[in-house]
Write a structure and sequence with these properties.
Length: 176
């Protein structure tokens, strides 16, 4: 990024600092936190997908999934993946969670299922956890539990193979 580019490391650092202060804003001051994010977004070009992404995160984190979902969609449609693959993946995870919260869990499942086969990163477990919640909201608890156990298994000090096998057995057909 160029020094004159509004999206530079300084801007990213200030966004990170704002998020680090999130717990300083109790529920009754949530609007102040969103205003802080809005002020940072105002520094961006109008067509930057980072703006709606950060605003979606702020709405989502302050309990307004209904306001967050359209902003996540706007960020993704506006090319967030071209700006940051990592933030694009976060947006898909968070959009799926918001969709579940507003009664659209099936869309959340459609959004996250391809992520299971995508490139692996530190968000893999979050994908599985959110997808499991969406599946559970649809009454597909065994599939959700399978995902969660599969995500947990590698982190266990023992029993990794057993838990991974149990996770698979929850969704694979039983042999006669």
């Amino acid at each position: 990024m160029c020094e004159g580019d509004p999206v530079n490391q300084n801007w990213e650092d200030r966004v990170a600092a704002a998020w680090a202060s999130f717990d300083d804003y109790p529920t009754e001051r949530a609007h102040e936190f969103r205003a802080l994010i809005d002020a940072l977004v105002d520094e961006l070009p109008d067509d930057s997908p980072l703006g709606p992404f950060e605003q979606a995160c702020a709405w989502d984190s302050t309990g307004h999934s209904d306001k967050a979902a359209p902003l996540y969609r706007e960020a993704l449609a506006g090319g967030l993946g071209e700006v940051s693959g990592y933030k694009s993946r976060r947006a898909r995870i968070q959009l799926a969670s918001s969709l579940r919260n507003i009664g659209q869990a099936e869309e959340g499942v459609r959004l996250l299922t391809p992520e299971l086969d995508g490139p692996s990163d530190e968000l893999d477990d979050a994908v599985r956890a959110c997808l499991a919640l969406c599946l559970s909201s649809l009454g597909r608890d065994r599939e959700g539990l399978s995902l969660v156990l599969g995500a947990l298994a590698p982190h266990l000090p023992r029993y990794q193979r057993s838990m991974a096998n149990y996770a698979r057995a929850l969704v694979e057909p039983v042999e006669p």
